[in-house]
Write a structure and sequence with these properties.
Helices cover 40% and strands 19% of the residues. The chain has one domain: Rossmann fold, CATH 3.40.50. Strand 3, helix 3 and strand 4 form a beta-alpha-beta unit. It has 252 residues and is α/β, with parallel strands linked by helices. It is built from nine helices and eleven strands. The strands form three sheets. The chain has a seven-stranded parallel β-sheet, sandwiched between helices. It has a two-stranded parallel ribbon with strand order 6-10. Helix 3 runs parallel beside helix 4.
């Protein structure tokens, strides 16, 4: 099968490309380095020639509501339009578990718009909602640290390995079932602060992870487990758990 991966150089995207190639698929990574700009729509039609499935693992360059919404809706609209013209059979779109349960959070509002734009297009779509990646805690520590202090939001999560997400996206691409939504989560519910502390210890870093309570209804929703899958999500559970992942080469 010929599969195109949008966002193929990102955290989940690179594992998606690797998993697709390991499964024997012919893979096209849609990136500017390959002459394809998904947001601008340039180079898409030639890249999608003969492609049967497009996996959209794009991440917006901004977390602001307006910029992220514009990026996602434009990019997925371009993928839908070019895919339809090129005879693409279906699309698989990566999203986030629980975004409907945190209204008012800018990036999640943008992801809901992303899903809606993808599902409104002519090419059938399966949305795969994943929980936060194991990598996320370390990314926050790196991004938010000020000297020895690493402020991390108090959020209840059920993290999953980005590698497992990439493998699952390829499985759905090969055997999608009916269009709609599915979900993927890791095996352990924990706190983002606790995961950040485990990450810092594993890295041997001198960082003091400080919990930050986000204000208002968004903060209450995140602390209470809005991002943890419930029975309605019907999430598939995939390992490894946090400790096994932190001991793996993927943790870097």
């Amino acid at each position: 099968m010929r599969i195109a991966v949008a966002g193929g150089t990102g955290v989940a995207g690179r594992y998606t490309v690797a998993a697709a190639r390991a499964s024997g698929h012919d893979v096209v990574s849609l990136s500017r380095s390959e002459g394809v700009d998904v947001a601008a729509g340039t180079g898409l039609e030639s890249a999608l020639e003969g492609v049967e499935v497009v996996i959209d693992a794009l991440n917006a360059p901004s977390t602001g509501r307006a910029a992220a919404t514009t990026f996602f809706t434009t990019a997925t609209g371009n993928l839908q339009a070019a895919g339809h013209r090129c005879g693409v059979d279906r699309m698989v779109v990566l999203s986030i578990v629980g975004i409907d349960r945190v209204p008012g959070f800018a990036y999640y509002d943008a992801k809901r718009a992303h899903e809606a734009a993808a599902l409104a297009g002519p090419v059938p779509v399966t949305v795969v909602r994943a929980t936060q990646f194991h990598e996320f805690a370390g990314q926050l520590v790196d991004r938010l640290s000020v000297g020895p202090l690493a402020p991390v939001p108090s959020v209840r999560i059920q993290p999953v390995a980005a590698r497992s997400v990439g493998e699952h996206l390829v499985e759905v691409a090969a055997d999608p079932g009916p269009p709609g939504r599915t979900a993927l989560a890791g095996p352990e519910v924990t706190g983002l602060v606790a995961l950040a502390r485990r990450t810092v210890r594993t890295r041997g870093q001198r960082r003091w992870v400080v919990p930050v309570r986000l204000p208002g209804s968004v903060g209450r929703a995140l602390r209470s487990g809005a991002l943890v899958p419930d029975d309605g999500d019907g999430a598939v559970v995939a390992g490894p758990g946090p400790d096994a992942w932190l001991a793996s080469p993927d943790a870097g």
